[in-house]
Design goal:
The complex is a heterodimer.
Chain A: H1 9-14, E1 18-22, E2 25-30, H2 35-44, E3 47-50, E4 55-60, H3 63-70, E5 85-91, E6 97-106, E7 109-114, H4 119-129, E8 136-138, E9 142-148, H5 152-159, E10 171-176, E11 179-184, E12 193-199, H6 200-212, E13 216-217, H7 220-229, H8 256-261, H9 267-276, E14 280-287, E15 298-300, E16 306-316, E17 321-329, E18 338-343, E19 346-353
Parallel strand pairs in A: 3-13
Antiparallel strand pairs in A: 1-2, 3-9, 4-7, 4-8, 5-6, 6-7, 9-12, 10-11, 11-12, 14-17, 14-19, 15-16, 15-18, 16-17, 18-19
Helix pairs in contact in A: 2-7
Chain B: E1 5-6, E2 11-16, E3 19-24, H1 26-32, E4 35-39, E5 46-47, E6 52-58, E7 62-66, E8 71-76, H2 78-82, H3 85-89, E9 98-102, H4 114-124
Antiparallel strand pairs in B: 1-2, 2-3, 3-9, 4-6, 5-8, 6-7, 8-9
Classes of the chains: A alpha+beta, B alpha+beta.
Chain lengths: 368, 126
């Protein structure tokens, strides 16, 4: 099947992108300066990410819709304020994760941002779960552009007046030229930043303005090192249909009230896992030496028992060390527990680490 | 000193008497992306033509390094182990990987010259 392209494809090529096939799209893995430079420029300045391959789903409805969505997602939506965003999951009855997503209450309904590889199956599943009662639109007309990093707010404010007033995980509509665009203060890099939903026709011009203000284009490669340093999961790797949010150490994203009240898909399993514990759990892992343990690397205990598997591993450019995440038998999940990673037939020492690997040294305010 | 020769696995080799200096090509570094770690063969170990002689890890993936000729490892470039970014910066000079005492000089004959290698890397697209 031929890859789709985003509205920024020409711009990517103009900036020396190496393009790869990703979730059915031709996407930039890196630009001419390379992953490490791109990573650092996001942490020190501001990076622009084309995330237009992700799904932007709008579901039209009122309080009835909020009630119906609460039967699906483990978050509180009936009392969700206008323009407030929440991170959640689409699960099956066994609390296996179909997808992780962001739901935002907007005028007239809810916006849901979905992973590219899952967006069509999510759409069909949600349609079925909502019994076709609501108008649903998985947009083909909208691009999604993220700007992330300590200078993101200053740069975006120069183009869109008022974005600096947005609070984390909140959004609003803004005017750009004759267009209404929707911006949320969110992202997936461990940095302050914004995600801008904008009509495809204006996406390139808008992105060029961000570049002219000093932000750099960042590819999927650095997006991966940034999110892994920030301890964030990548769907299809660190979470999937065989893992629950509890096992993925994402209990924080499930509303406490909803755990008590129930009534969402997967509740029984979630409740039982919280009460009875889990066999495997996602942890951060730091190899001791100069070794990168990539996905599928086997994890061993000190007495040589196979106790788990790496789901993401790379070199963290900001912390200048190899980092990984994986699933491990719960009894070995305590921070500083010594483990071994089998790489190229040899076992290398590592230890369980706190997440995130990388933390910002300043407090992030909403009005800087 | 003889001319520089190239392998299909994107290594370069320079022969000086019995001593061959081996590294990876500019083209290889462009494919690999930023190199973050390198593992070199042990001093004194014997390596066979086209056999495994180390690993480079880039931000994207791990790739094996192969030796284009057989011999005994007599020197390792520790500076690229300490600072792997040197490999991206100057792969065909300063950032050589290892030196070996070549055991069979005729193995050089099957390798490509610069012109042939450039054509090969362009055509193979990898």
């Amino acid at each position: 099947m031929e890859n789709k392209i985003t509205a920024l494809n020409t711009l990517h090529k103009k900036h020396g992108a190496k393009l790869v096939s990703f979730a059915g799209y031709e996407m930039p893995i890196q630009y001419s300066k390379g992953i490490i430079e791109e990573h650092k420029s996001t942490r020190e300045n501001a990076g622009i990410f084309d995330v237009s391959h992700m799904g932007q789903l709008f579901i039209k409805g009122d309080s009835l819709l909020a009630e119906d969505l609460e039967k699906i997602f483990p978050v509180e939506l009936k009392n969700c304020k206008l323009n407030q965003s929440k991170y959640s999951f689409l699960m099956n009855d066994e609390a296996g994760i179909h997808d992780d997503l962001i739901i935002t209450k907007v005028v007239g309904g809810f916006n849901i941002v979905l992973n590219a590889a899952c967006k069509h199956s999510d759409f069909e599943l949600l349609k079925k779960l909502l019994s076709d009662r609501y108008e649903m639109n998985l947009s083909e007309e909208l691009s999604l552009i993220a700007i992330q990093g300590p200078k993101a707010v200053k740069i975006l404010e120069k183009i869109i007046n008022g974005v600096s007033k947005l609070k984390f995980m909140n959004g609003n509509s803004f005017n750009y030229l004759d267009q209404s665009i929707y911006i949320t203060r969110s992202g997936y890099t461990g940095e302050d930043g914004f995600e801008i939903s904008i009509n495809n026709k204006y996406a390139e011009l808008f992105t060029e303005k961000l570049i002219n203000q000093g932000a750099n284009l960042i590819g999927l490669g650095a997006r991966d090192t940034l999110r892994l340093e920030a301890g964030l999961c990548l769907y299809g790797h660190d979470m999937d249909i065989n893992k629950s949010p509890i096992e993925a150490s994402l209990k924080w994203a499930i509303s406490k009230n909803r755990i008590i009240s129930g009534g969402f898909i997967g509740h029984k399993k979630i409740k039982s896992q919280i009460e009875n514990g889990i066999n495997k759990v996602r942890v951060g892992i730091k190899p001791v030496g100069r070794i990168i343990a990539r996905e599928n690397t086997a994890i061993f205990s000190e007495d040589n028992k196979n106790i788990g598997e790496i789901t993401s591993g790379t070199f963290g450019p900001s912390i200048q060390a190899p980092i990984a995440m994986g699933y491990i038998e719960s009894s070995f999940s305590k921070v500083d527990t010594k483990i071994f990673l089998e790489v190229r037939g040899k076992k290398y020492p590592a230890s369980i680490s706190n997440l995130p690997f990388y933390k910002k040294s300043y407090v992030k305010g909403a009005n800087q | 000193m003889s001319e520089v020769k190239f392998s299909k696995e994107h290594e370069w080799i320079k022969l000086d008497g019995d001593t061959a200096t081996i590294g990876i090509t500019q083209h290889a570094t462009e494919m690999l992306g930023d190199i973050v770690f390198v593992e070199l063969p042990e001093l004194g170990s014997s390596v066979a033509k086209d056999g495994n002689a180390g690993v480079v890890e880039s931000t994207k993936a791990a790739s094996d390094i192969y030796t284009p000729v057989s011999g005994e490892i007599i020197e390792n470039n520790q500076s690229i182990v300490d600072d792997p970014a040197k490999i991206n910066a100057d792969p065909e000079n300063e950032a050589w990987f290892f030196k070996l005492k070549i055991s069979n000089k005729s193995e050089m004959d099957s390798l490509m010259n610069k012109e042939e290698y450039e054509k090969f890397s362009k055509e193979s697209g990898n």
